[in-house]
Amino acid sequence: MRSLFFPAVRWTVSITFLAASAVSLAQDRNPLAGDPKAAKAGEYEFRINCALCHGLGARGGGRGPDLTRAQKKHTRSDAEMFQVISNGIPGTVMPANGTNGQGVGMTDEEIWQIIAYIRSVEVKAPPKPLGNVARGKELFYGDANCSLCHMVEGKGGRLGPELTSVGGSRAREAIIDSVRNPSRRLAWGLTEATKEFPQEYESVTAVTADGKEIKGVALNEDSFSVQIIDANEKIHLLEKDKLRSFQKSRESAMPKYDADVLSDKDLEDIVAYLTSVGAK
Amino acid sequence: MRASVTSPNFLRQPRSGERMQPTAQAVGQRQKAIQRRRDERGPSPVNRVTVVGLSLILSIGAHAQVTFERLLNSNKEPQNWLTYSGDYSGKRFSPLGQINASNAPSLTAKWVYQTAATGKLETTPLVVDGILYATGQDDRAFALDARTGRPIWLYQRQLPSDIRPCCGRVNRGLAILDDKVFMGTLDAHVIALDAKTGNVVWDVAAADYRTGYSFTVAPLAVKNLVAIGVSGGEYGIRGFVDAYDADTGKRRWRFYTVPGPGEAGHETWEGDSWKIGGAPAWNTGTYDAATNQIFWPTGNPSPSNRGEGRAGDNLYSNSLLALNADTGKMNWYFQFTKHDEHDWDATQVPVIIDSGGRHLIAQANRNGFFYVLDRATGKLVSANAYGKITWSDTKDAEGRPVAKKEASPTIEGHTVCPGALGTTNFMAPTYDPQSGLFYVSARDQCDIFSTAPQPYEAGHAYYGSAYFPSEEARPYLGFLKAIDPATGQVKWQFQHTSPTWSGVLSTAGGLVFTGDAEGNFIALEAASGKPLWHFQMGGAVYAAPMAFAVDGKEYVAIAAGSAVYAFGLP
Prior knowledge:
The complex is a heterodimer. By secondary structure, chain A is of the alpha+beta class. Chain A has nine helices and seven strands; from the N terminus they run ααααααββααβββββα. Among the domains of chain A are: about 5-120, Cytochrome Bc1 Complex, Chain D, domain 2 (Orthogonal Bundle); about 135-180 and about 255-280, Orthogonal Bundle (Cytochrome Bc1 Complex, Chain D, domain 2). Chain A has a five-stranded antiparallel beta sheet with strand order 6-5-4-3-7, with no helix packed on it. In chain A, α2 (about 35-50) crosses α5 (about 110-120), α6 crosses α9 (about 265-280) and α8 crosses α9. The longest helix of chain A has 17 residues, at about 5-25. Chain B folds into two domains: about 1-65, no CATH class; about 65-90 and about 105-110 and about 120-570, Methanol Dehydrogenase, Chain A, CATH 2.140.10. In chain B, a hairpin with a 4-residue loop joins β8 (about 180-185) and β9 (about 190-195). The relative contact order of chain B is 0.13. The model of chain B is unreliable at about 1-60 (pLDDT under 50). The interface between A and B is large, with 43 and 57 residues.
């Protein structure tokens, strides 16, 4: 029979927690830094609260950056990391995770535990880029045709997601996977403040009452209307009840880049280019 | 400046006589009074606004005492919406039929009330004799002129910074009895506000919010009691349903949803796990006057997604309780999901239905089954899946779905349908006695459940598992489903663009109303599910609609984004 109550221990923790929360905002360093027990507790907290986007092991899922990287785009110090976890990053899908956020929220102590965990798994020095940045840029805007649909730093197309920050916000493996298997996990588009799910880059085909076919990508959609951008970057604003037909597909508009279309080396160069831009 | 709250005697109207509505002139006076007060107070923020100098509203208010008799006979005053679900049966059916299938396409927005606060609105307003009462983010409550949306008073609770709301700083609404409205707060207090002014009449602490207790539920006023169930299934609380004296706030009874030593059901908990066994009661129950029973649903055992350490059925988690309204003693219970490991709270509104001489109670459960019980005995009549489920493919001798062993979460994680958010959740369903159909918002989404053992720590989230929406199961689908309670079969369904958190209203006009995650408010034909009208409100819906009438004109109201909307005919 396992007792779940250890009052003495709980008191100790509570006192530590109160002390920690009282100074947390002014704090530069994690009060639990280097504590392996805190890191272990943080690992479970991470699985529950963070792994959906950042992946089990913090190596980056398809939705959030690899947090085992030595250099992180939005945070350097523990204090910055605390702020980001607690309050989220405006303009991104990173939500506020403190107790004043939308979800269950984490206490200050739990956030520090997560930071202890992240510090315990992050690598100490950035790995050498596997690819050639300059060649990756050439490919992106040249033979690989990426820029026909994707924009980086103001140059490129509009049909697909803008990729200036993708190298900083997605793991290398996630970028490679989305080039090799673009339909496996559709990219997220518009996020609305109170809506549960972001719009995805779904392919759509609409036929208007006069028989005109419009193919493109959904910028947004509800039960009664759809906003589409087509391959010529023309925006179509359509009411569904006025259409002859409307079909959606989870087959991405992006072609599947197999290794015979884009070699591993070329892809690595493109990833290196995106990573260098994303790190700025 | 308190003296200004009392209206001058020469403006006072006789208390007897016709129920009066504010005239344009009176509204003008009121606005002048508000402006005058603003001028006096300057631009500093005020938390509570009280309308002064308007005798007509005072006289209506004086007339508008909501007695228990009125609550019992709420169908005799269809212009009012007196309880969370509209009446004690939980049907969320309005007998108003002025807005109907032929004129619904001409519905138009009548007013919008902006709280201008961030976070979700989950409130169902009450309407009593032309005044609308509702709650909002961060434990605010407000009273509005139901014809214009103009505020009469605002109550804003000053919440401690370390409250533990699991799922947003939300509140689902008020109860009203006599001249008070009642509210549960995120810091686990129950409060009574004066219905005319929003002044606090009494304020009692029910539990220690620092250990994870909170209230988000709309209370249920019965006789002279205010019944309320606690939230906190994410924190290892010990759940309860309480009843407070409406006049004094004194607690009259408490039913612990996790039985203590010596109580029946205690043996369904391993060791000391009962002390932190969860089983919150965070959605509003229903009341059957004939048997004087309150039916209250309960939520998940804690930790929500890990059964290890709490071997047993874990009574009375995920159950429907039939409680004596006067004493809180349990007459019967029915447990929908035994020893739950998927967070499938059974906290959906249990709807009282009389059909073919049978006294039934029905619930569209989060675990994906639609249950019909005999409400005298709690015996199961039927259980039928109404969404995508993978956790059960057999039933026991009583007809209750039995969980497959392999549905338990694993370290590597595996996929179970429905996911942790369930086939439905807290969104209020409706039963339309005209169409004979039960309407509920449903989602098909599967999650990967992976264990993540956590030690219990007071006030800390306590799940014991991580769950992620399964990408393979995308897209996640959302529906409005019309279920025939007699057969458990889905008669029609309307597919939303994505899953919705909106509740559903049915009306005597042959309509059902619901909202969607994309911000639309939608009227559908009750018989067929054909959409007849929609309006884009600019924010996702997490609330449930209701209907009322003022001056003989029907309105339908719903909260979306950070605002409350009222719609009517042109």
